[in-house]
Specification:
By secondary structure, the chain is mainly α. It folds into 2 domains: 80 residues, no CATH class; 329 residues, no CATH class. It is 69% helix and 2% strand. Strand 2 and strand 3 form a beta hairpin. Helix 6 runs antiparallel to helix 7. The mean pLDDT is 85.
Length: 426
């Protein structure tokens, strides 16, 4: 068995063939089965296998897009659970984008944020207020609700509004760090939630605890987007933009500055890195991704109230980052996917299966011990296990490796260019 595995690990063609067979089998299983959560999860698992294959980045991206954009929707579309599968996939995309935003703040810059869901709320309410008649209570001009075509503009507006709130949060917390920073951000998140929950007097802006209902759905080419399979492609497009942006930022000048601040603020400042600008940029960019997804969430749910933006949601997003691996983009994606799928599908299906066994008299399980109700207990147990045995997460962050020979040649060529310029100037 070990010989076979070693042969496969060294043979690139064998890996590709096995992967293609795996994808075909799981796709057919999902296509032929009326309802198979296992087949759905196995097809998603192919993306993790793809990540570890010895292929070029472009090949991996194209293959991943084919699986997510074509195979997954097509295979799931021939069963009664099509929309529920797409609902789970859509929410996975939303939480992955939010976790990547928090990873900038926590993983790259080392700033512990316990109120990150506040930016999600800002984006959701930004669209919800103007996509309902609520805006007519305080806007002296314009006709409300705005049409569904405005959704595409509000994705950008939600991004900018959340970034602005990120800067407003960053300004007063620049002098604190560690536990004190966590307390301040926790308070900020609660303040935003309470303000939105009570902002119905003296001017009714958010409709208070009643929330905003009947939010206008997005519209494109005259078609209203109301089903999860339609929102799936919207979320997929935003997710690709987010992951591309985060990947570019990580290896940019500002990304290296974030990591320097995370490791040692005093040393970073001594090297000429502006702490204020660097921290505010991290808060603003991280918050902007959450704001965009808040707009999508409000449009998808068609209802927004303050109960969707509690401290527990912030903790859940932080758990995604910690579980995957702080500072690791693939790890955060994996952590967010695992937590979301575990929460929305695995525990629910397990509860339904155990309830069915109880009804048939096979076993007797108290209702209080249902896996769906033990969700937080299970998450806590997972965190304890990973803290003990995988403290750096499922896929820890890896420092970029440089080829010493190529780097030396580049430095030497740079010196030659400088020498030539000096001769010309002389």
């Amino acid at each position: 068995m070990r010989k076979l595995l070693s042969i496969i690990s060294e043979n690139k063609l064998a890996q590709i063939l096995l992967f293609v067979v795996y994808v075909i089998v799981t796709s057919l299983s999902l296509y032929l089965a009326q309802k198979s959560v296992i087949a759905f999860l196995l097809l998603l698992f192919s993306l993790l296998i793809l990540y570890f294959l010895k292929l070029g980045n472009k090949t991996k991206w194209i293959t991943g897009l084919v699986i997510l954009g074509v195979l997954l929707p097509f295979s799931a579309s021939h069963g009664p659970s099509y929309q529920s599968y797409m609902e789970v996939a859509t929410l996975v995309g939303i939480y992955v984008a939010m976790a990547l935003g928090l990873n900038i703040v926590v993983g790259f810059a080392g700033l512990l944020d316990l109120g990150f869901v506040a930016f999600f709320a800002v984006g959701a309410y930004t669209y919800g207020i103007f996509a309902t008649a609520q805006a007519s209570n305080f806007m002296p001009f314009g006709h409300y609700p705005l049409s569904g075509e405005s959704f595409w503009i509000f994705i950008l507006l939600g991004c900018f509004a959340a970034a602005l709130f990120g800067i407003l949060l960053g300004i007063p917390v620049l002098r604190v760090k560690g536990d004190y920073l966590a307390i301040v951000t926790l308070g900020f998140g609660e303040i935003i939630r309470i303000v939105f929950n009570n902002l119905d007097k003296p001017v009714n802006i958010t409709n208070g605890s009643m929330g905003l209902a009947s939010i206008a759905p997005p519209r494109i080419f005259g078609i209203d987007l109301i089903y999860p399979n339609q929102f799936y492609y919207v979320v997929l497009a935003i997710f690709l933009i987010v992951i591309y942006t985060v990947n570019k930022l990580e290896h940019s000048k500002i990304g290296r500055a974030w990591k320097a601040v995370r490791e040692n603020e005093i040393a970073a400042q001594a090297m000429g890195i502006p702490l204020v600008k660097t921290k505010l940029t991290a808060f603003a960019i991280g918050a902007s991704f959450s704001g965009m997804m808040g707009v999508v969430f409000a449009a998808k749910q068609t209802f927004v109230d303050a109960t969707s933006f509690t401290l527990l949601e912030s903790i859940t997003i932080l758990v995604m980052v910690l579980l995957g691996g702080m500072g690791s983009i693939p790890g955060v994606i994996l952590g967010a996917a695992v937590v979301t799928i575990l929460n929305l599908q695995v525990l629910t299906e397990l509860s339904n299966w155990l309830n069915q066994l109880s009804l048939n008299g096979v076993i007797t399980i108290p209702d209080a011990l249902s896996p769906a109700k033990m969700q937080r207990f299970i998450f806590g147990a997972l965190l304890i296990l990973f803290a003990l045995y995988r403290p750096k997460g499922l896929m820890p962050a890896k420092n970029q490796k440089y080829d010493a020979v190529k780097l030396k040649k580049r430095v030497e060529s740079g010196k030659e260019v400088v020498a030539i310029r000096e001769e010309k100037n002389a």
